[in-house]
Sequence to fold (192 residues):
Amino acid sequence: MTIRKDKLLIIDIEATCWEGYTVPAGQYNEIIEIGACLLDLNDLTTSDARAILVKPMESDISPFCTQLTALSPELIAAEGVSFEEACHILEKEYDSRNRMWASWGNYDREIFKKQCKRRKVRYPFSGRHANLKRVYADVQGQRAGLQRAFESLGLDWIGRAHRGVDDAANTARLMAHLLGTHGLTPLRRRGL
Fold:
């Protein structure tokens, strides 16, 4: 399969979580928001930032999760779609199966794989994934969380941390900065 090299799809998910990060018996960490953003690899502009809210089927949204993400059970019930529909949106509107995609770390990729397997839903992405946390570490010579990486580069955070759409857009901006400085070589090392 030929991978489109015009844009990089940046994904950041928010999932159900609980205080102490202990998953209650019978529940799973489950995707409740998919933040998506495209980074044009020619001019390094970002576009199509979107929050796809997802109704959980195997867990409850805890008060801790709402406090962390601002995603309440009421908001998700009113505006969320099924996980299957969310995957369809990624494929249809972002051409996710034909593009390299990226996330800050591997958590997003792993939770997608697990949830697709449990739900018997086709994995919506290509096999080309870039761990941008690792890309940052390679070019900057240091490891960092997303917000610390922003601070180290002197960039201003826009929006709310732990909202998928804002985290995806900010990750795209950080990558635009790094690629503007280092060129596409860091992504080519990961299969672009």
Observations:
- The radius of gyration is 16 Å.
